[in-house]
Amino acid sequence: MTDSHKTNSHKTEPHTTDASLRRRAIRLVTAAYRRATLGPVPRLFDAVFYERTYPDVVASGLDPYLHFVRSGAAADRNPSADFDTAYYRDQSGPTALDPVRHYMSLGVKAGFDPSPAFSTVAYLARYPDVARAGANPLLHFRTDGRAERRIASPSLARPLDAVFLRGVPEGRQWAYPNARIPRFCLSLLRNAPVAACTQAAARICLLLTLDGSEVDVLTHNLAAFADSALDSLAIEIDMRLRLHPPNPTLALTLESCFHGARDADGTTLVRYAEARLWDLAPDIPRLKASFPPGCLAVRELA
């Protein structure tokens, strides 16, 4: 090595060492500040991913989660490979909490999706053991579900994806209640005769005009019936009993169906591979919940 190389080496080494020491000191101080103000780092935040994806964070020396909270989230930086900050903020709007903590504490209950590749409600509906355990669905998928080859369904949160009527002919769009049929009964069934359901349909859509309490009852019963020992559960709606909204408030889509013809007493049987409940009240319809395979009967009442 020449003298000039030795000289240059001696000139740069102290500078490099000083910079590393400064970054280390900043990391220690900001990590302590983060612990005091924010607490522990949420398990959905991947510090290794964050620093690898955004090298300026490493150069700054800042605690990576503190950086995300203070400026990274506002710049739509992602806290992990499975969390799309911009996509999540489109659903949540401005929040006091950063997107990760908001999703963990409030977003799951609201049915928000952390990325286009992951549907919160679909994962919980498909794997009731995760729901019963009260586990965060995305965290479960990252820590256990992916290794167990569990399925993560794509999100349907954005309006371009919320096309629940696409491909559904008018004859399979059933609107209840309505002026002609103000009273109807929706019965959840444990089983329906295969011989009575011979007509195939990719999707049937029930456009339901329900008030707030009826929405709650239907949502609860759909979720509870799957885990119950009941053979059937009926929900009767009569729009003459009280004022109903002017337009449909829910869409119940039945996927990959077989159904029968309406019989003499006005009943139609349907067997389906999945049921999806859409909230039509917001300007942008959004998936409210999804449910496992089942059967139901729709009866038009006099």
Care to describe what's here?
This protein has 302 residues and is of the alpha+beta class. It folds into three domains: 3-72; 85-145, no CATH class; 170-301, no CATH class. It has ten helices and nine strands. Strands 1, 2, 3, 4, 5, 6, 7, 8 and 9 form a nine-stranded mixed beta sheet that branches. A hairpin with a 6-residue loop joins strand 7 and strand 8. The chain is elongated, with a radius of gyration of 26 Å.
Number of strands: 9
Give me the secondary-structure category.
Answer: alpha+beta
- Element-by-element helix/strand order: HHHHHHHHHEEEHEEEEEE
User: What is the molecular shape?
Assistant: elongated
Cα(first) to Cα(last) distance is 99 Å
Number of self-contained structural domains: 3
Q: Which stretches of 5+ consecutive residues score pLDDT under 50?
A: 1-12
Mind describing the biggest β-sheet? Answer: 9 strands, mixed
Mean pLDDT: 88
How much of the sequence lies in strands comes to: 15-25%
Q: Which terms summarize this structure?
A:
302 residues, alpha+beta, 3 domains, 21% strand, elongated, disordered N terminus
Compose a concise summary of this entry.
The protein is about 35% helix and about 20% strand.
